Amino acid sequence: MEKERRTILLDHLNSIDADIVTASSCAEAADRLRADPGVRLVLTDLTLPDGSWFDVLSRVDDAKADAKVVVCARLADERLWSQVLEAGAYDMLVEPYQQDEVRRILDAAAAPVQRSVAAS
Question: What kind of architecture, by CATH, is found in domain 3-119?
């Protein structure tokens, strides 16, 4: 996730008092998941330096984490949204990130959010 996009999303997450742990790659997200099995929600960009949202979803499964995955994207269409949901992710956040939408998805996915990893 580009720095500006990531900053906007992190600002929204901070404004709703989410406990945030960040990761910049699939491998780092996997390390964080193993280190903290209490992670409830993972936000990931479509593509990462070492993989994609699908790889992050697999890492969540591999870690046997009870976390829901939300995929963040600049643009999305019904086909991508359908692929994300069919693969087992919880939902998508699409730019421009709106604080109310971020809150709604986080509340629905993991109320209350205890730990989250933003992989970008």
Answer: 3-Layer(aba) Sandwich (3.40)
